[in-house]
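G., the chain you wanted modeled:
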Amino acid sequence: MKKISLFICAWLLFYGLEAFHIVGGEIEFITIEPGVYRINLIQYRDEAQQQNTEYDPSVTVYIYSNKDNRLISTHLLPLSTVSEVFYTNPECSIEELQTSRVVYTNVIDLEPSTYADAEGYYVEWERCCRNLDIVNVENPGQTGMKYVVEIPPLWKNGKPFINSSPVLLKPLSDYACINQLYYTNFTGTDPDGDSLVYRLVTPLNSSAPDPVPIPQAKPHIPVYWAEGYSLENTVPGNPPLRITHKGLLTVNPKTKGLYVFSVLVEEWRDQVKIGAVQRDFQMLVREEGCDPPDPPEVGIKIPGNDSFDPEVDVLNYALEDDKCFDFIITNISAGEQITLRAVPVNFDEELDDLFSITQSFVNPGQDTLVVQVCAPGCPPVRDGPFIIDLIASDDACPLPQMDTARLTINVEPPPNQFPDFTSFSPGYTIDENEVLTLSFTATDADNDSLEMILYVPGIEDPADLGLFVEVTRSESGLMEGTLTWDTNCQIYDFSSFQNFQLALLPEDFDICEVENPNVVWLSMGVVLPPNTSPEVTLGSDLVITARDGDVISFDVLATDLDQDTVNLSLQPRGFQGSGIGVSFSDASGVGSVNSPFQWVVDCSLLDLTEKRTFEFLFIAEDQDRCDVVNQDTVLFTVNLDIPENNRPEIQEYADTVLKINVPFEMDISAFDFDAGDSVTIEFLNPSRLPRSESLFFERKTGLAEVTSTLYWTPECSLLDLGQESGLFEISFLAYDDGCPVQKQYTMSITFEIRETDELFLGFEPPNVFTPNGDGHNDTYTLTNLTQPRQNLPPDNCDDAFQYISIHDRSGTSVFRSEQRDFVWDGKNVPAGVYYYVIKYDQTQYKGFLQVLR
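Predicted structure as tokens:
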């Protein structure tokens, strides 16, 4: 008979899809160190579709506060990696089910003390839209997706709170078949060892059907279930889609189709929920290719006991019994691969170390496999039977089919007596710098070898507390030695362990390595030298009221009567002191120490929408001979009295008519009537301005008032072909820097842009000039003249300047230019009468021009 090893199998499955490229994902928030964090956004993409094969180069996530749903910050996550999601069994792959895992990531710096809201925060991302083939959501082509991770505060109890969100394992990697049980461990791990609880929830919709909507604050919008579907009937079946609180996802679907579902993974620490991550995903239920062979069937055969029934009988083995039996698997098809595994039910030990297993085929060509299983001589459960599930599974697609036999076994363990040990007093208390020595003797009636185990709860190595065990004699069944405790606080740190419990355990090396339950507990105490607490005093009242611009200044004194070194520090409550202009340096001194405190209250550095009371905790800690820290604290409170801020105003302007290609200027002014406020004026929404290269308005800032000039020479492109005029609204924004809340004001002007046909009718060019060098009227030009009617008409959308031509009486050309701003000095001609032609695309002007000298 050939030996095989028993192994444990696990499945993590992925769902199929068609059409739109994003099929699921989640967000991870990971603490690297206090103040440094990594945010991962994970997308699962359909790589079989061809409509959208490009990857977004980056995504932006938004962090909101749970306290008031206020936007705290946004963060850009560049594309990092793309990797394939593999099938559970590659032989089960289908062409239309190819999935990749796309990770966007970035390391960000966040000041923990500014993320101190007790209700925590949430990180989110949105995208639209979902796969058109989804059957359980109403209008999936206009329904988006939203990924959210809930995180606890980053600052708690006066220090950084360390936590990382759950890291979910790979998603479904296979399709499901109608009328077949589908199962997977849809689970993850927690980097901090927190407990995870799983449940189904309704998937979230995006806030808008835009391709990349801006994520909005709570309340989140759920998707609308299609008729006949609900959270309790996400994937119909018998049973419908379900997940246990430990993450086992199951369904026996009855209808084929593409289904979307969502799992919420809650994170618990010390019986308190501290966070959650929600993962969206899709499940493809197929009918094609879903004809697996019948599942294997298992049975148990006990030598000499043909009537043994594992469902009701207990398999009992005496110490001397042969502990082997046959595990029989039938209903096996030709060429089928059978996997065997055992799952402990009422214990946690690895079964590979407990069972000896062999296998062989009974008569080649038959459908029976016999596996010999041998129970251990040392039972994993003492004082009662142990239970195992023996499972046989095949290699069917999409998931292995299986059968299970549950077996209850009672194995008589080898005899063993626990060691006897010296009796001690219940506890010992000694003065610091003394040494306590206790002798001990341990004996074992079975003559097993012995060792002494020393343990202090909360301490990795008892030697850190000066505790040592020395074995002076060791032989079979006997051990003698001493326990020594050195309480010199200059060598060992007793600042947190002046009273503690000490465990002594004599352990024997019996065959089954059964743990000795007879632990000897001693209460240990060390009396440290007396130490008085330091005292903090402030050169100020403990509660004051201040206004913007006030200077708060005083000395902080800490003293210690024992003349110990005293450390003085400041801990702002729920904010970062340096970020609001507070000046204070931590200091140390022997017996006493002084450090000045100063705060120049600057409203522009403060977020007064949330906080108008600021608390400063001054802390004095001494360091005595034994490094035992005594502490005194004083809380200093500043209540800010900041008057409400009035909004600025923009001067109102009437609607205005502009001409195509005619330069226009307008001064726009804004005012702020709060003393000391600056005011800024700019375009309200530059992205919605008319598409005109000549439109210009400089953002400007001034104290109390500001003026900026609007420049615009409207182009023909602003009007459609044949259009005589058009209306354009331009909006302006004025905002101040006032406290406690910055205020703003908007104003709009409607501009009518008109064609310039009427300007062509009033054109009267000058008809004389005197090029005699006297500096007056020496040149001939038709631009920038003082009389507007003498200037060339501006081009309009259908009629643009081409040239000017001047000739004498004989028709000989004496001057020609295609430039609007031409200048003719007349030096090449004698005095006399000349004739001009001014040509536009559609208009022509003719006349005479007299040159005088």
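The longest strand covers residues 71-85.

Shout if anything looks off.
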